[in-house]
Amino acid sequence: MSETGNYVFMLVYVDDEWKDIGGNEYPYEGYIEAKNFTYDINIEQGLYGIMWGKTCYFPYEKLKNGNWVVVKTEVSEEIIKVDSYYNRYKFRCGTVVHTGDIKSASKYIIRHKDDHGFTEDGAWLQPNEVAGSKNWIKEHKL
């Protein structure tokens, strides 16, 4: 990834072995790249996350006991929309900038969404829209 450009945050669930649904092993912080990335919607061949952490549903992720990472990635043709309703995307690479639980990840996204270099979408993001925020959890009765 280049130092200039437009960036977004992806919220990613990883299991107890720090692997995502495709078997990619995430570092606690630093660079991550899917070695088997393809330009289709197969989430097992790439990294997979929720852009800006904004979603209304989690089909398999563990909210209370799960591990969550926030990945900063550059907007490019290597970001592929997998599911527009749930705001899920597949991407090739990025930098892990935060690890923690769903609440700490949501707080990180909100605190840093206006940092230099991010897309304008981040500026419009409201705290209650990010998965894991107090209002989001209350609204979804978790």
The end-to-end span amounts to 36 Å
Categorize the overall geometry.
globular
Q: Tally the structural domains.
A: 1
Strand content: 25-35%
Rg, Cα atoms, Å: 14 Å
**Total DSSP E strands:** 7
Stretches with pLDDT under 50, minimum 5 residues:
none
**Helix and strand sequence:** EEEEEEEHHH
Structural class assignment: alpha+beta
- Please list the strands of the largest sheet in the order they lie side by side: 2-7-4-1-3-6-5
Q: Report helical residue fraction.
A: 10-25%
Topology:
Layout lengths: L6 E8 L15 E4 L13 E5 L15 E8 L4 E5 L4 E4 L1 E8 L1 H11 L7 H5 L9 H6 L3
Antiparallel strand pairs: 1-3, 1-4, 2-7, 3-6, 4-7, 5-6
Jot down its keywords.
globular, 142 residues, seven-stranded antiparallel beta sheet, 15% helix, 7 strands, alpha+beta, 3 helices
Question: Care to describe what's here?
Answer:
This protein is α+β, with helices and mostly antiparallel strands. It has one domain (7-139). The protein has 3 helices and 7 strands. The protein has a 7-stranded antiparallel β-sheet. Strand 5 (79-83) and strand 6 (88-91) form a beta hairpin. The termini are far apart. The mean pLDDT is 87.
